[in-house]
Amino acid sequence: MLRYSPLIALLVLAVPVLCGLAGTVLPAFGYLPALGGEDFSLLPFEELFSQTGIWRSISQSFFIGVISTALSVMLVAGFVSAWYGTRLFKKVQYLVSPLLSVPHAAAAFGFAFMIAPSGFFARLFSPWLTGWERPLDLLIVNDQLGLALIAGLVVKEVPFLLLVTLAALPQIAAIKSSHLTQSLGYGRMAGFLLSTWPSVYRQIRLPIFAVIAYASANVDMAIILGPATPYTLPVRLVGWMNDPDLKMRFMACAGACVQIAVTAFALLVWILIERFTGAASRSLAAKGNRYTHDWGFRVTASVLMTASALIVFGGLLVLALWSVSGLWQFPNTLPNTLSFKNWMRALPGLSQPLITTIIIGGASVAISIIISLACLAREQQTGRNGGNRALLLLYLPLLVPQIGFLFGLQLLLLSVNAIASWTALILVHVVFVLPYVFLSLSAPWRAFDKRYDSIGAALGSSNWRIFWRIRTPMLLRAILAACAVGFAVSIGQYLPTLLIGAGRFPTITTEAVALGSGGNRRIIGIYAFMQMMLPFIGFLLASTLPALIFRNRRGITGL
């Protein structure tokens, strides 16, 4: 059966995306017989471009995607070039790594609670430094330029880019290259950026493209932090898709096609930026300047990286504090009283979304881990890993904007009466969970010492027995870590749950984003804090279960 595992993975990843794209493009050109669209036309696009502020929404989506990604890459490149191989780098790495598990919505709420005019930053310095006795009348969150959304995307995407960079560095002997350039008289940052970073960048190019696709088309963070007059294009599209007037779906699909074009244009602009920066770096290298005076840049890179991590941690702590706060008037730094009454009132409404979240996350992770293990076992049998084509397939659901194919997928599922079902919702989650699970598990699997398999085979064990009695115990920590990553990804899925679930499967994430417009910080804090705790519990179990299961075999837990 392992022979068919790559085909199953192909079907799971590619078919929903391609069918969804087809289901989006046809209504965008007026063809949707179920709603009376019998002929092809450009009327949906004409209606789209006649909407008030549509070009501003489109431009905001483009610039937010490109600028937030550029800032994230610059911050990661600057920090890695300044401190890779030092003790400070390891400390900051341990500080930033846990942030990968924080869902985007929870991070956005925490960030909003920190930077709002009545947020924690303003309270921390008021009134003793600022003199403010009441919050300033400033539009910081939901500003028209999208600066809050850009900053929120940066602090959330930096941990992801840093971790994929860390995975790429050992493959190119970065330490040796850095020492070589320093021996030639180059400053630490200049030597790394001119000699090592180009090779690193080639390794992380697809993840950067995925970041651009998400940043230019995200919905949940844009609802919480983004501009509201008008909303960014993806947020407006979701509103049109859920409009009671079914005719709006033609225009929504046309807008989804425009969003795909916006993301594609953002990727094209990024490729041009790549070529420009590549030519600029070669020109600087040819000049032979050593750029040794980089201490100020190194300190700035470390401060910005540490600050981005502390802001997220601080926001999560503020969420927890709001969830148990009593009276908390501005400019008090801390609430006057603490109470669990908020939790007691929220628990009845919290139980069903919590159960739904756990069921969907657990089922999608179980399916993804089975497919991933089967594909890796098949790879071991054949000795072929698929190369760049397989990697591109894995990133396909991440490179195509969710809104670009989920609209069409929703319409297709409606046509076969399969919408708002557990099966459809879980399988859609698998589309986004599987790439992360496979990428998390593939490196430990491929690094496994095959001599253990040879010893088992020499003792007469079958391949199945070797898998369960040798590989699985020794790779249990990696398998559970991949499950924890997949569970965190599933928890953070807002748009797939909203569209494919048709609002009938409320999860912690969908409820938290919906409550965001209500302004009740205590209830928002409860839901966002719970959204943060679920991935934390998953990673806690992943780190502790191997030690408990193999408590009589201490040596195996370190493998």
UniProtKB/TrEMBL annotation:
CDD domains (alphabetical): TM_PBP2 (cd06261)
Keyword annotations: Cell membrane, Membrane, Transmembrane, Transmembrane helix, Transport
Residue ranges occupied by any ABC transmembrane type-1 domain in the UniProt entry: 354-542
Predominant subcellular localization, coarse grouping: membrane
Domain of life assignment: Bacteria
Record membrane topology: Multi-pass membrane protein
InterPro entries reported in the protein's UniProt record: MetI-like (IPR000515), MetI-like_sf (IPR035906)
Membrane-spanning residues: 62-84, 105-125, 145-169, 206-228, 248-273, 299-322, 354-378, 390-413, 419-441, 474-495, 524-550
Record's subcellular location: Cell membrane
PANTHER family: INNER MEMBRANE ABC TRANSPORTER PERMEASE PROTEIN YNJC, MOLYBDENUM TRANSPORT SYSTEM PERMEASE PROTEIN MODB
Protein name: ABC transporter permease
